[in-house]
């Protein structure tokens, strides 16, 4: 029976099965097992399969070996555990490994999956179609490798087909004999025999040539040539179907030959190849091309795995690529001169930045490196922006007095707390027009600097907002780094609060040429994005109140709606308390307008009409940044009478209120007769008082500086600026003797009756005051610090009144949190204020350490 069965197995292996009876041979196997001859049958089948596989090796596979392969045993790939795989020695050296090793010498690389190390001879695996020999030789070697893969594939498919039929004949053996003897089934036996007799044959170096061929073909494809992917896939699938025996593991968990033998060698050669390629590209290419190549390689390897490698190779292969191309060179890529992150940002290369972001996000260290790079870039560019406005030349140009539409916005409106109405007529002339936000047409040199700084910051911020939403895919980590960098460089400019307030002031003034209200609102919305970065929002509030006061009192605000819209934006950022006084200023202007309408009606109903129109703004002392002390000034009798009549009207409506007049904040329209014609002049109230002195003197008569000062009582600094605007500016209403730009106490002044001008209405711009010098700025800072002390104490009391008992750290943290919307309180200052409140018995120390109690 065995002889007949053995003959049938031979017929199956020789594909001559037409005359075989499966039922008959199934009975032979059944009887042999039944009569206790199962071992003889099982061993006989094993021996016959081995003989057939040896025959396949001799007849099909060995003749397909690439020529010259047997001479390359000295250098090659040391595979895990037991075998040496030597690639074709006739293959040429890879360009990526050229110069990295001695000829014929092995290179080494760690096995990334934690298994045994693999030693790779790059000199044998770097074959290309165009290097190390002519193209015909390369094609011949490729074809020789394909012959070997085809021979192994055909032998594998033939063996599988035979084993499938043989398993059908020996089903009874699998069902009865195999379970009793713990032997593998006939099918598994066939796989193991193919593994040991063919793939891992001890007689023929099949494994050497097979792995060398597979790895070489993969590298050939990496270098741009075409290979037979179907042949590679069929051989890889074969390795995936064969298992590597691991004692103690169930059959379902046994590793495959692919995972145990081939994958480590594949990963090691890949690591060596890509490491050399990365170093070569970094030396010869730029960052953009390098990243594009990396992205292409990642896509290629993903496709390679999906087509002919095993899915489990995807993860270690991707990690290998990311390590060799990215993790090891993050700093080099970012800092590449002329093409790195700085160049990409400078030239706004969105696609390259997007690719950089995507690739850096693939490695663990990448996001942090990118964020640090962005932060360093913003910090350096921000320093340049700050330096451009803080340079000595810029400061020097602002120290000089210059003619302007009105007083300097930084220090002309004094700080104050008292009741102060101001006498002013409504401005009817057009303010200086400004094209868009051009820095060259600002109202003062200081505003010019502020406009330039804020516009540069806004442009820089807008650029990064766009990059953030496109290239950086709105990444929260990048957003945090960008905001931190902007916050740092904005606050490193000590004049940032003043500049932002001046920028808003310029955009909320009347007469902006080429800007609609919608465009102004858009600019202000962008400005708020910079305002958010400010730490010293209380300093901004101080300047904003001064600038708002000037806009309102000089009638230069574009509209109440625009002002209230800006306040609404500030309210969203800082809360209702931040804008309460600002809103009070707007309300005062509205109430003053209603009061003036009523005053005008009362004048019409009286029998004593006014010789001229008057407009008075009554201001609440606690809202406006104006000194409570009245400015000294001797007005003309007609002006004094107008004041007296308004005071009488106001007291009849509001008894008990005290009015303090501030002529330094007013302006007037006056009709002046010259020899040629009459002109209507728009001047400051001080200028009007000075001009009225010349009304009662003879033509050609002069007034000395001392006489003017004695008759007007105007403070010296204001008087000098007033005379300078009348006698030394573009429109010379007065003639100064001697001539010159500066006003001296020995000067004399003459009314310029021969003045000519084609304009009927002329605005005499008040010469701007000098900007704050170091001493004045220090004084302003001290006042801010004093206000902060009061705010910190009020916050401490408010918190303790609510909590009753708190630890020191909790109290400090809560105070810092609540005050953050106005300024960043210094921790030592908070501690000093707590000590002060303890001394004044607002708080007391509890028995527990570092705990405070509130004292009602």
UniProtKB/TrEMBL annotation:
<protein>
    <submittedName>
        <fullName>Cullin-domain-containing protein</fullName>
    </submittedName>
</protein>
């Amino acid at each position: 029976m065995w002889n007949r069965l053995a003959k049938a197995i031979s017929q199956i292996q020789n594909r001559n099965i037409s005359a075989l009876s499966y039922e008959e041979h199934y009975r032979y196997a059944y009887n042999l097992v039944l009569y206790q001859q199962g071992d003889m049958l099982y061993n006989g089948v094993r021996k016959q399969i081995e003989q057939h596989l040896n025959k396949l090796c001799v007849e099909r596979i060995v003749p397909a070996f690439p020529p010259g392969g047997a001479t390359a045993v000295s250098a090659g790939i040391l595979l895990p555990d037991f075998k040496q795989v030597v690639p074709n020695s006739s293959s040429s050296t890879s360009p990526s490994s050229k110069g990295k090793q001695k000829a014929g010498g092995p290179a080494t690389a760690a096995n990334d999956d934690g298994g045994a190390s693999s030693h790779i001879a790059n000199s044998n695996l770097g074959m290309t179609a165009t290097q190390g020999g002519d193209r015909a030789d390369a094609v011949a070697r490729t074809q020789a490798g394909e012959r070997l893969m085809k021979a192994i594939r055909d032998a594998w498919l033939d063996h599988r087909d035979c084993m499938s039929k043989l398993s059908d004949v020996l089903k009874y053996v699998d069902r009865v004999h195999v379970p009793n003897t713990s032997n593998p089934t006939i099918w598994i036996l066939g796989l193991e025999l193919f593994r040991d007799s063919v793939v891992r044959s001890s007689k023929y170096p099949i494994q050497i040539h097979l792995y060398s061929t597979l790895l070489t073909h993969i590298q050939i494809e990496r270098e741009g040539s075409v290979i037979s992917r179907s042949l590679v896939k069929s051989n890889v699938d074969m390795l995936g179907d064969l298992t590597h025996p691991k004692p103690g593991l169930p059959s379902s968990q046994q590793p495959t030959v692919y995972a145990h033998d081939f994958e480590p060698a594949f990963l090691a050669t890949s690591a060596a190849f890509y490491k050399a390629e990365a170093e070569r590209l970094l030396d010869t290419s730029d960052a953009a091309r390098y990243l594009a190549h990396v992205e292409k390689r990642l896509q290629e390897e993903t496709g390679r795995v999906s087509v002919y490698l095993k899915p489990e190779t995807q993860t270690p292969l991707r990690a290998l690529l990311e390590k060799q191309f990215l993790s090891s060179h993050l700093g080099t890529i970012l800092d590449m001169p002329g093409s790195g992150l700085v160049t990409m940002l400078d030239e706004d290369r969105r696609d390259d930045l997007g690719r950089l972001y995507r690739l850096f996000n693939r490695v663990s260290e990448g996001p942090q490196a990118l964020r640090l790079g962005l932060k360093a870039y913003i910090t350096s560019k921000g320093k340049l922006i700050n330096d451009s406005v803080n340079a000595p030349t810029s400061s020097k140009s602002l120290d000089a007095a210059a003619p302007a539409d009105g007083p300097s916005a930084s220090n002309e409106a004094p700080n104050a707390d008292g009741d102060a109405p101001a006498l002013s007529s409504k401005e009817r002339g057009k303010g200086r027009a400004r094209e868009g936000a051009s820095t060259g047409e600002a109202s003062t040199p200081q505003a010019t600097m502020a406009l330039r700084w804020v516009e540069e910051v806004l442009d820089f911020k807008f650029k990064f907002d766009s990059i953030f939403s496109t290239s950086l895919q709105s990444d929260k980590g990048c957003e945090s780094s960008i905001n931190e960098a902007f916050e740092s460089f904005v606050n490193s400019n000590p004049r940032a609060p003043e500049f932002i307030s001046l920028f808003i002031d310029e955009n909320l003034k009347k007469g902006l040429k080429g800007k609609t209200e919608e465009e102004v609102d858009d600019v202000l919305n962008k400005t708020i994005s910079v305002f958010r970065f400010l730490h010293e929002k209380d300093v901004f509030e101080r300047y904003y109140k001064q600038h708002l006061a000037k806009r309102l009192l000089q009638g230069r605000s574009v509209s109440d709606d625009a002002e209230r819209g800006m306040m609404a934006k500030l309210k969203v950022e800082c809360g209702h308390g931040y804008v309460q006084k600002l809103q009070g200023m707007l309300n005062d202007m509205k109430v003053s307008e209603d009061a003036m309408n009523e005053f005008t009606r009362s004048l019409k109903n009286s029998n004593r009409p006014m010789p001229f129109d008057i407009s008075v703004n009554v201001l609440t002392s606690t809202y406006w940044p104006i000194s409570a002390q009245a400015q000294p000034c001797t007005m003309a009798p007609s002006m004094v009478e107008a004041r007296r009549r308004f005071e009488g009207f106001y007291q009849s409506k509001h008894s008990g209120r005290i009015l303090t007049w501030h002529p330094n904040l007013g302006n007037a329209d006056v009709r002046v007769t010259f020899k040629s014609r009459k002109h209507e002049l728009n001047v400051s109230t001080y200028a009007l008082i000075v001009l009225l002195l010349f009304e009662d003197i003879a033509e050609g008569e002069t007034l000395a500086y001392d006489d003017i000062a004695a008759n007007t009582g105007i403070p010296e600094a204001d008087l000098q600026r007033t005379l300078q605007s009348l006698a030394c500016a573009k429109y010379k209403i007065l003639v100064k003797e001697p001539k010159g730009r500066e006003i001296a106490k020995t000067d004399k002044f003459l009314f310029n009756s021969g003045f000519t001008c084609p304009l009927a209405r002329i605005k005499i711009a008040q010469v701007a005051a000098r900007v704050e010098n170091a001493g004045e700025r220090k004084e302003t800072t001290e006042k801010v610090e004093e206000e902060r002390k009061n705010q910190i104490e009020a916050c401490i009391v408010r918190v303790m009144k609510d909590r009753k008992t708190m630890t020191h750290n909790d109290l400090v943290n809560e105070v810092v949190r609540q005050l953050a919307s106005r300024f960043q309180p210094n921790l030592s200052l908070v501690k000093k204020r707590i000590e002060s409140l303890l001394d004044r018995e607002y708080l007391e120390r509890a028995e527990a350490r570092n705990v405070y109690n509130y004292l009602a």
